[in-house]
Amino acid sequence: MEEEAMGLEAYDSLDPNGNITIKWDIMSWTPDGYVAVVSIFNFQRYRHIQAPGWTLGWTWSEKEVIWGMLGAQTTEQGDCSRFKGNIPHCCKQSPKVVDLLPGTPYNQQIANCCKGGVISSWIQDPANAVSTFQISVGSSGTSNKSVRAPRNFTLSAPGPGYSCGPARIVQPSKFKMMDRRRETQALMTWNAACTYSQFLSRKTPPCCVSLSAFYNKTVVPCPTCSCGCRDNTTQPGSCVEGDSPHSASTSAHPGKDSFTPLVQCTSHMCPVRIHWHVKTNYKGYLRVKITITNLNYRMKYTQWNLVAQHPHFDNVTKVFSFNYKRLPTYGSINDTAMLWGIKDYNDLLMQAGPMGSVQSELLFKKDKAGFTLDKGWAFPRRIYFNGDNCVMPPPDAYPWLSNSTSRAVIP
After folding, report:
1. Structure confidence at residue 201 (pLDDT)
2. Which family does this protein fall into (predicted)?
3. Predicted confidence (pLDDT) per residue in 323-373, tens digit
4. Residues 308, 379: contact at Cβ < 8 Å?
5. pTM over cut 0.70
6. Most exposed among 72, 256, 295, 376, judged by the fewest C-beta atoms under 10 Å?
């Protein structure tokens, strides 16, 4: 029942099978334990792990210790006073492990390690959707019958939000040799799956959506208090005015506690705002402009992505300055798409300030059978930023189409 409840709480209709799988492959036995390769696979379509990266934890079933590691390290050594001579890397009953940083000496590395804990989403960059480290375990079982799997896995990525199930014995992993002519396999393999819940991750939404259109002068703002309410009387310093002399210095020096947003003072108080503007109505196409603005002075977003649900994504013909991929949801229905930045061009969304925004334009080919500008059709149903659902304006607030502008078509 507990696992079923966890699954329901973490269910994402746009990525129903998404999870992070921890694979624990025992590669060899040692006199007092074993050597294993631990891999963290991100099988989520659009949710990635950004800097400062993942932290993986567990509780040993017995009194195991970690003699050594490659590609990662524990955050604490713990009490190893019972050992004489060689001292283990970690003696804690519940260790916490982090990835090593880029530039780590080669003799401390292993394949797919040392990226500072950053793991891409499965669609955005599948080659970098895995992180791996090697661990030498002692005071453990030394055979398939006597060894015990770790318990109570935890995953911080980098904050809360993930719930992990128990490690289960699965078919041993198989590995191709360099010449591709021989295959080896692990002596034993455990898998543990971790699923994400936005409700566990944060108490308030991290983003909101505003709307506008060429046919209406009204700009529909993010709903008031979408991510919190502005209250400088009881909580002074909870936000920064955009024209404040302190805003530039705050952006240049984001501070140590980058997990607690320091946002620009707005009516919605969201760290990120997405603006969807219906820009131009051509005879055969509709042009839409998307602007993503970072209003958080303490965080920049690496490898950001945006997922949007719109009834006409099946007819997108051109996307400018963003990467784009459709995400089939139900059978042949293609109403969902993922957008993300181009590497080394706009894949980094800087802190709040003059450089804290990215934008793109989309060209939709009109489908005469289903196209209309009426009743908010041109606006998205849902928008996700970095895998989290953004607060949308209510449908009755969408820019209204008048009869005079409905015929404003550019050849």
Report:
1. 78
2. Belongs to the COBRA family.
3. 999 987 766 667 899 999 999 999 999 999 889 999 999 998 887 776 777
4. no
5. yes
6. 256
In terms of Cα–Cα distance, which of 343, 371, 367, 339 is closest to 274? 339
Task: Say if strands 207-213 and 272-281 run parallel, antiparallel, or are unpaired.
Answer: parallel
Q: What is the pLDDT of residues 399-411, one digit of tens each?
A: 887 765 555 566 6
- Which carries the bigger pLDDT value, residue 340 or residue 201? 340
Q: HSE (CB half, 13 Å, CA atoms) of 286?
A: 22
Q: What is the CATH number of domain 207-231+261-397?
A: 2.60.40.290
The band of 86, judged by pLDDT with boundaries at 50, 70 and 90, is very high
Hunting for tokens 């935890």 — which residue is that?
154
Report strand pairing: 162-164 vs 188-196: antiparallel
| Closest by CA position to 167, among listed 28, 29, 58, 73 | 58
For residue 248, give the amino acid letter: A
**Residue range(s) of every CATH 2.60.40.290 domain in the chain:** 19-196, 207-231+261-397
Q: Tokens 């602007």 correspond to what residue?
A: 291
Rounded average pLDDT over 25-49: 97
Query: What pLDDT is recorded for position 377?
Result: 80
Would the pLDDT of 3 be above 50?
A: no
Amino acid identity at 92: K
Which CATH number does 19-196 carry?
2.60.40.290
Our CA angle for 249, 257, 79, nearest 5°, is 145
